[in-house]
Design a protein that fits this description.
Layout: H1 13-29, H2 41-44, H3 49-52, H4 54-77, H5 79-98, H6 103-115, H7 119-130, H8 133-164, H9 169-188, H10 202-220, H11 222-225, H12 230-250, H13 260-263, H14 266-294, H15 307-323, H16 325-335, H17 337-357, H18 362-390, H19 396-424, E1 426-429, E2 432-435, H20 437-459, H21 475-479
Antiparallel strand pairs: 1-2
Length: 480
């Protein structure tokens, strides 16, 4: 196994952490940046509403595939190199979207933006290699929080840009941010010789991509196609069959894309299962709260906010995630990552309990969202720490990538379930079918249940003494 060491004079670790967090934030922004203009996309792209929906879905699917693949590439070829490649993908994807008004180029650009999401798990795994021990937990917590922060602040930022400018400006701003990320990654992130011997499992990568995309398409389109339709059932079942075949193939490989034996370790497996539940909990409020804020006040429970105003009411929750990053790191240092994950999931669930009771004014939803966001900030920081403490150094980036994938699966499931709930109980106003107050309450209850299930799963994660080859703090941290 190779020993990680800087190949040139290392930048300040704090500056490098800031550069990586900014990169994660910029990549996560792409997940929600088109939501404020989603209803206008059919007209803007001269296509149908169903086809325009793929502009959002393409990014989510590409992100799900990219995170484990980027992690494996980082283990094989070096994390800093893969970070540069992800930043370049973000630049190219943003420019492609900014220069087109047609559906197919837009989908290609959005897919490239989604592939850049691999930046976040790779950046998390790299931080353990160059940060001094006293700031490692805080750095990982801050980087983990960018998954939620980017999505939260992306809504008001995009609404503000789209409100006063041509919609292409959204992507030009994204391209400018991505260019800054690319330059800062090249200049400020340490070049560490952390590549491990092995080969890229191309067949395994293709199998994972086909299985994941097929399954997630079925889940994400279930509400549109109908959960009992042949397309939905065929996609979900077909995706699961491909993933089972992929798993059998991976177990026979000397250098698999994902080492399933490592992911089957109780500490990693249970952390990843908890990630699905907590990812579900995080996404539920991101879907239900903006819709409730924008609901016409004439229905009696709607809050009558504009898209921009709704985004501004949601923005503090993103900042709350970042503010709780140092709190999470202190909890990890004092009580351990397992108990920190339990605290985060419990606080997230508490936010939904508050939302059920307080949903009559924008400020009340703001309070509930901030509580939930604090839980996300705490919990998201603990998960990669649990993974890194249990995975071999040579598989660190890949293991964190799989954990990020499981969170993505949770958010995708939440999107489908929330859409089903909100469309399953409606009231009519001016010819429009709008979700009932009870539907929103059920969404909040579902988010709370998922969060508390995450607490229960996290409680079963066993303690494990650190072993040689598992502790991921290399000599590079001492050198810095």
């Amino acid at each position: 196994m190779s020993t990680s060491h800087p190949t040139r004079s290392a930048p300040s670790p704090v500056v490098a952490v800031v550069a990586l967090c900014f990169g994660g934030l910029s990549a996560a922004l792409t997940q929600t940046m088109v939501i404020p203009i989603q209803s206008e996309l059919p007209q803007l792209l001269a296509t149908s509403g169903a086809d325009a929906g793929w502009v959002v879905t393409a990014t989510l699917l590409a992100a799900a595939v990219s995170m484990p693949v980027a992690g494996r590439l980082a283990d094989l070829y070096g994390k800093q190199r893969v970070l540069v490649a992800n930043a370049a993908l973000l630049v190219v994807g943003s420019v492609v979207c900014a220069m087109t008004s047609s559906l197919l180029p837009m989908l290609a650009g959005r897919a490239l933006q989604g592939l850049a999401m691999g930046f976040i798990p790779v950046g998390i795994s790299l931080m353990r290699e160059f940060t001094p021990p006293h700031i490692t937990s805080t750095a990982i917590a801050a980087m983990s929080a960018t998954l939620g922060v980017g999505g939260a602040i992306g809504l008001p930022l995009s609404a503000w840009i789209a409100d006063g400018h041509d919609w292409h400006a959204l992507f030009w701003v994204s391209a400018a941010l991505a260019l800054v990320v690319l330059v800062s990654t090249v200049l400020l992130v340490p070049h560490i010789d952390d590549a491990e011997p092995g080969r890229l499992d191309v067949v395994g990568g293709l199998g994972l991509a086909v299985g994941l995309v097929t399954f997630l398409v079925g889940v994400s389109k279930g509400t549109t196609w109908g959960w009992g339709s042949g397309r939905t059932c065929g996609a979900i079942v077909g995706g699961l069959v491909v993933l089972l075949a992929w798993g059998a193939y991976e177990l026979r490989q000397r250098d698999p894309l994902v080492d399933l034996r490592t992911t089957a370790r109780p500490q990693i497996l249970l952390t990843n299962v908890a990630a699905v539940a907590i990812g579900f909990g995080m996404m539920a409020q991101s879907i239900a709260v903006p819709q409730l804020l924008e609901m016409p006040s004439a229905v009696g429970y709607g809050l009558g906010q504009s898209i921009l105003a709704a985004g501004l009411w949601m923005a503090p929750s993103g900042l709350m995630m970042m503010l709780f990053a140092p709190v999470s790191s202190r909890l990890i240092d004092r009580t351990g990552a397992k108990h920190t994950l339990m605290v985060g999931a419990a606080v997230l669930g508490l936010g939904y309990v508050v939302a059920v009771a307080l949903m009559g004014a924008p400020w009340q939803l703001l309070v509930a969202s901030c509580i939930a966001a604090a839980g996300v900030g705490i919990g998201y920081a603990a998960m990669p720490t649990l993974i890194l403490d249990s995975a071999p150094v040579r598989e660190a980036a890949s293991a964190v990538g799989v954990n990020a994938l499981m969170r993505s699966v949770g958010t995708t499931l939440a999107s489908a379930v929330m859409a089903t709930i909100l469309t399953g109980s409606t009231t009519t106003l001016g010819g429009l079918e709008l979700p009932t107050k009870g539907a929103f309450q059920v969404c909040f209850v579902a988010g709370a249940v998922a969060s508390f299930v995450g607490v229960a799963i996290a409680a079963t994660i066993p303690r494990r003494p650190r072993q040689e080859g598992v502790e991921p703090a290399p000599a590079a941290a001492e050198a810095v």
